[in-house]
Structure formats: structure tokens, C-alpha cells
Specification:
- By secondary structure, this protein is an alpha+beta fold.
- It is built from two helices and three strands.
- The model has no long low-confidence stretch (mean pLDDT about 95).
- The protein has helices spanning about 15-20, 50-55; strands at about 1-5, 40-45, 65.
- It has a single domain (about 1-65), classed as Alpha-Beta Plaits (2-Layer Sandwich), CATH 3.30.70.20.
Length: about 70
């Protein structure tokens, strides 16, 4: 199972993650990633590529993706 983490302290609300993975990430009422500060979130296997794309485009490196065996 893969997981992702959005670091609340690093997220600046640029919105690149929403464009890279619109089916995975959504903005909160202030324009920040709604998963920010929630800890590690399980990632459906079919969304792994999108999560990796969002991780790659985040200018603050606020998104981290891991794959557990």
C-alpha cells in the first residue's frame, strides 16, 4: 500500500498539486491542500502515478509519497 503526506508547515497553497492530480487533491477553503496536516493518508494504487506527479511539481516539496511492501 502506498501513502502520501502533505506537510502543513511547507504547503504554501501554490495549487500545482491540484493541477497535477485533480482526482486526488482538492483545495480547502483557504486554497491549501485539504490533506495538509492529516498525517499519512492511504493512497489507492490507481492514484499512485498522480501522487508522484504532484510530489514532483510541488515547489515547496510539501508532498511525500511512500510505497510500503
Amino acid at each position: 500500500m502506498a501513502k502520501f503526506f502533505v506537510d502543513e508547515a511547507l504547503c504554501q497553497g501554490h495549487g500545482d498539486c491540484f493541477r497535477a492530480a485533480p482526482k486526488l487533491f482538492t483545495p480547502d477553503e483557504d486554497g491549501f491542500n485539504s490533506d495538509s496536516g492529516k498525517g499519512w493518508v492511504e493512497l489507492p494504487p490507481e492514484r499512485l502515478a498522480e501522487a508522484r506527479a504532484a510530489e514532483d511539481v510541488c515547489p515547496e516539496t510539501a508532498i511525500r509519497v511512500i510505497e510500503d511492501d
